[in-house]
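Weekly modeling sync, notes
Attendees: S.R. (lead), two postdocs, one rotation student

Agenda item 3: backlog of single-chain predictions. S.R. asked that every request posted to the team notebook include the full sequence so nobody has to chase files. The rotation student volunteered to paste the first one in as an example of the format we agreed on. Action items at the bottom.

Example entry:
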Amino acid sequence: MSATLSLDTPVCEHSYAMSTPPNPAVPTDLVLPASAIVAPLSPIADDGLIAVDGPIAEATAAESTPAASSSAPSSKWDSTRLDALTGLPNRVCFTEQLHRAVEANRPEGPMLALLFFDLDGFKFVNDSLGHQAGDELLIQVGERLNRILVDPAEQLFRLAGDEFVIVADRVERLNQLPKLAERILAEFQDPFIVTNEKAFVGASVGIAIRSNQGQSAERLLHEADAAMYQSKRNGRRCYSFYSADLDQEHRRLFKLRGDIRDAIDQQEFTVHYQSVFDLATGQRVGAEALVRWFRDGQVYCQPEEFVGEAEKCGLIVPMSQQVIRQVSRDLLAWKASGQTLVPVSINISASHFRFGDLQDDLASAFLFQGLPPQLIEIELSEEAVLHDVKQSRQKIQALQHMGFRVVVDDLGTGRSSIAYLQKVPVDAVKIDASFINDIENSDFALAVVDSMIRIAHTCGLRVVAEGVETEVIRDHLRTLGCDHAQGFWLGKPCPATEFYGASSPASVEGNPTTST
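Predicted structure, as returned to the notebook:
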């Protein structure tokens, strides 16, 4: 059975869970399949996720005295139901209100919906400006969001930390929910002023609709929470509706995170190396270390999936540490076999760069092993460098003082123009493959890459092109004066034992390699 429901039609006896991409253009009508409805699931004890069963019913009053705030609700709630910091109704009050709303909700009446959200970038405010600034920010968030709730049937609650939820228990039309989500997101367009500093944060919003009478309060909150995490995966600062597919995806990611932990313990991650060539001479001048995951001799998971998930669940630093140690062992083995070593670049995550003991990790792996630091290049994303330019400059200078070189990876994919290159003392830049791949057929892309190379050279930086997959692209890059290049056509990643025989400089002269 399925039902077609116009966004502008009043809700009648049918209402179903809905899935939509973030910030969609509102369609004229929506098909809401009954197959999207699923039975309550067992708890998903994922990092940062609210379990399906328990937390709502088990919530206890943690605050006793509400702070003075314009967002404080009326006195009909006692102090055990108010958040001590923001003055908003707290989790205890939310639990009571939601259970009452669920019991009162009927198929023939208005819909009950939850909008669950947390703040994108809140941790950085706490880390940078201190917890007092974080508290000020939360108070201001509550004040701003309370102002946009003009319908008495919409109530804002603070659950914990930077988590908030809006209960909308009289939704007459479906298009009310995207409009409300857009109003929430709009409140984060302007900076918050905390401790006399501008703080920019966003919100990821998840929306769940009560779709059947067997749907408990706990289940509804779980669905809203799952939708919120989908918004984070979609790039943050957007909203998503719950769909049944999200539960299956959460289970898969939950298992993946457990597998990553096991892989770190069992040292299943290994390193493959991709050659970097000088475009003018055809000589191999470097290599990039690329993490790979094998289990029982087979590729277990692709890097584009497990690396991002390791970053999200806080496992990227121990994974990076394993990669660093493996590169050290491979360099020592190559050196012992009499090879002429070329520099190896290692990708370092933003969290490892900003919060980890990167200098100690590098010193232990290379300097203390007698390997010259000039053999190591540290690759950082634009986002890692730009998040705090002053701090990044200090950290980069410290690495360079130790003798390591620093490269900005994926140039052009970040949030700013490449003019920032003047502000950070890096040694080289890598132009992202998405730009390089287009120069074969697009004059605009060719002009963009030409500008990047010119600006980088003006700043005294070496330029490496990623993703060189054809002879035509290679020739364009030579004409533009690009220094170095890498790509599958030039040389595929290979294990350390095969690296010095797998890639040939002839590939740069016109013949792609045959290594696998």
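Discussion: group reviewed the output briefly. The two ends are 50 Å apart (CA to CA).
Action items: rotation student to repeat for the remaining queue; S.R. to check formatting next week.
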